[in-house]
Amino acid sequence: METIIWLIILWGLGALYNWLTKQREQAPPPRPAPPPRARPTQAPPAPREEEIPEFMRELLGLPRE
User: Fold this and answer.
1) Under a CB-based contact definition with an 8 Å cutoff, are residues 3 and 11 in contact?
2) How far apart are CA 54 and CA 63, in angstroms?
3) What does the pLDDT average to over 11-15?
4) What is the largest CA-CA distance in the chain?
5) Separation CA 44–CA 58 (nearest Å)
6) Alpha-carbon gap, residue 12 to 3, rounded angstroms
């Protein structure tokens, strides 16, 4: 009886292995990785210096222009 159980277990494992290998064969090939992005060769432009409103200057304790 124990031998029959082991045979059924091994048969099931073999069937599972066959099914998994067939699934892997049918899967589409992996997509190639996108090319790496080129790093900018120049420094980004400096942010524009915007005028600070008067009330913010007072809150921050900045001198008047």
Assistant:
1) no
2) 10
3) 94
4) 98
5) 31
6) 14
Of 42, 43, 65, 36, the C-alpha closest to 53 is: 65
- Residue 29 CA to residue 18 CA, distance in Å, equals 19
This prediction has a pTM of 0.38
Which residues contact residue 29 at a Cβ distance below 8 angstroms, ignoring those fewer than 6 apart?
none
Q: How far apart are CA 41 and CA 29, in angstroms?
A: 35
CB 57 within 8 A of CB 64: yes
Considering only CA atoms, give the Rg of the chain. 35
pLDDT, tens digit (0-9, with 9 covering 90-100), for 17-27: 998 888 776 77
Tokens of 1: 């009886």
